[in-house]
Amino acid sequence: MGMPARTQGLKSTEGEGVSRRTVLRNGGRAAAGGFLLGLLTWLHARSAQALPAWALRPPGALPEPRFLGACTRCGLCVRACPYDTLILALPGTEVPLGTPFFRARGIPCEMCPDIPCVKACPTGALDHGLTEIDKSRMGLALITDQETCLAFLGMRCEVCYQVCPLSGKAITLEMRSNLRSGKHALFLPIVHSDHCTGCGKCEKACPLEKAAIRILPSDLVKGQIGEHYRLGWVEKAKKGGSLIPELIQLPVRRPGDGP
Amino acid sequence: MKTYPGDDALRLKGRLLGRKWLLLRRLSQLLVMTAFWSGPWWGVWIAKGNLSSSLLLDTVPMTDVLTFLQVLASGIRPEAQAVWGFAGAVGVYALLGGRTFCAWACPVNPVTDAAAWLRGRLGIGRVLSLPRWSRYVVLAVALALAALTGSQAWELINPMSAVHRGLIFGMGLGWWMVLALFLFDLLLAKEGWCGRLCPNGAAYSLLSPVALVRVEAHRREACDDCMDCFLVCPEPQVIAPALKSGPEGSPMIRGWQCTHCGRCIDVCSKDVYRFSWTLANGSKVAS
Ligand code: SF4
Ligand code: SF4
Ligand code: SF4
Ligand code: SF4
Question: Which tens digit of pLDDT belongs to each residue from B34-56?
Fold first, then answer.
């Protein structure tokens, strides 16, 4: 058919007269060329496939290596988003070429209840199993700078708390006393990873020149307690009472009680 | 005065009819792009997405053959929409001829065509000689990378998908890719990208054997060996088997790499070629 095409012009290309040597030589060239191309692409891929921490994937995105296998770079999610949140990465940027992402400080995700971006994804790179937007995990919010966060400085800011779609669950305010003034209260925003979706609304709304709260990849910032650790109060609550018999009863002695 | 392939045909058929298929093809390429542009530009959504995966009129999915194969090779089980889109693309291009995609839809074609045209006018010789089957090596490499890394590593450098995506979603530095393709074809390798390297075209070429539409050298006895068709054809190796196979051989151009561009029809002053329908048993109906 169309293959041994190095003979051009009027000669027939039906394959007659292709010697064994030519076949071997061509095979060697193909293998060498293919190997070189594969190696170069692979080397490039190793650096060009890492997602920068500021680039957030759409809701339901598969974990990163699998996402890059499944996403066709088609932009149907981009088209489906009513808020123009999502962007396809341009050549020459740090995000893997052509893949969809958003910046929290750009247009954050508005957490549509019907998740149109996920429904539009033809391959399932955005997991169609995600049906409740509150379960999405695009990243994790974190007060990255207590030195500039207005709430930590003692002002009533709390903008992040106010704009959070899951306010009261993903961000709560905790009252502490202001040791600097000695008489005021601090209302500190605290993020809870079991509810934060990483939508980015808090980072977008933070009134500082550069946000003191940032959405970061969860595995970059989330701690993990050792497998063998047990939190006594948790275990106690689970069991509904102390796990050990209350054995040790030390006598209470105060100074001056005498021997 | 210098003459170029097709000059005789232009004189005989006129400036428009002597370029009939070329103009129709440019129109088709423009329509494909407009279908994707009309949504973001005027809010009329004919096609959404890009050639890697798209949705026509919000109902019919299409998925590029190489894209789909890379998804599979990455070990992903795609959702139904991508599977139907792949089936649709395979169906359309199996009927029309696999590489009909290259000549009639792909946005890279005008770039490499322009390079080929300029190369002819400037008389640039060949520097790099890449065998035409290199494209299958690139195809194998793209799929092997997906299988080995679990991600579509080839898509980080694939200029074909980047150009189409860029035209719709923003080019950025992608214009340098276009320029690089143009210069590669102009200075380094004749028909270098589309004719020797592009794995998307290689994947579509695999659908060629069953095509219902083909170019036929139906008046090959009128051929006066002017060679114009060989000079304009982007895959000239496909012509001889149809044109020069003697009265016994089929006059149908059956080479997998024929892009159905119809340039040979345009430039032939003896009207040797035409588009034909071929049916499986070899019978044919003139168009
Ligand atoms: S959930 Fe809504 S706002 Fe968020 S990315 Fe998807 S479509 Fe856009
Ligand atoms: S819709 Fe899915 S496949 Fe298309 S760009 Fe978005 S995530 Fe990728
Ligand atoms: S990212 Fe911010 S706004 Fe969004 S859920 Fe998490 S804490 Fe709330
Ligand atoms: S919006 Fe910014 S400054 Fe205000 S409390 Fe939240 S993190 Fe602090």
Answer: 999 998 999 999 999 898 899 98
Reported as a single tens digit per residue, the pLDDT across B91-118 is: 999 888 889 999 999 999 999 999 988 9
Point out which residues pair with A213 in neighbouring strands. Answer: A143
Q: Which atom of ligand 2 is nearest to the CA of A76?
A: 1
Q: What is the pLDDT of residues A37-81, one digit of tens each?
A: 777 777 777 776 788 999 999 999 999 888 999 999 999 999 999
SS3 labels along chain B: CCCCCCHHHHHHHCCCHHHHHHHHHHHHHHHHHHHHHHHHHHCCCCEEEECCEEEECCCEEEECHHHHHHHHHCCCCCCHHHHHHHHHHHHHHHHHCCCHHHHHCCCCHHHHHHHHHHHHHHCCCCCCCCCCCHHHHHHHHHHHHHHHHCCCHHHHCCHHHHHHHHHHHCCCCHHHHHHHHHHHHHHHCCCHHHHHHCHHHHHHHCCHHHCCEEEECCCHHHCCCCCHHHHHCCCHHHCHHHHCCCCCCCCECCCCCCCCCCHHHHHCCCCCCEEEEECCCCCEEEC
- With beta carbons under 8 A apart, name residues in chain B contacting A30: 133-134, 137
Judged by CB atoms closer than 8 Å, whether chains meet at A91 and B162 is answered as yes
Ligand 4 atom with least separation from CA of A189:
5
Record: contact B156-A90, CB cut-off 8 A: no
Q: How far is B171 from chain A (nearest CA, A)?
A: 6
Query: Which of B40, B1, B158, B12 has the alpha carbon at shortest distance from A73?
Result: B158
In DSSP terms, A216 is beta-bridged to A140
Please give the structure tokens belonging to residue B245: 């196979």
CA B287, CA B282: separation in Å to the nearest integer?
Answer: 15
Distances (CA, A) of A58 to A77, A111, A188, B67: 8, 10, 29, 20
- Interface TM-score (ipTM) > 0.90: no
Q: Is the pLDDT of residue A11 over 60?
A: no
Question: Of the candidates B76, B177, B241, which has its C-beta nearest A123's C-beta?
Answer: B76
Token pair for A26 = 């061509």
At residue A4, the pLDDT reads 40
pLDDT higher than 90, residue A106: yes
Chain A residues with beta carbon closer than 8 angstroms to that of B177:
91
* Band (B71; pLDDT cuts 50, 70, 90): very high
Q: Hey, is B129 helix, strand or coil? A: coil
Contacts of A37 in chain B (CB under 8 A): 137-138, 141
- The candidate with the shortest Cα–Cα distance to B287, out of B20, B52, B108, B94, is B20
Q: Where on the phi/psi map is residue B194: left (φ > 0), alpha (ψ -120 to 50), or beta?
A: alpha
Candidate from A88, A120, A122 with C-beta closest to B169: A88
Query: Residue B286: its pLDDT value, please?
Result: 44
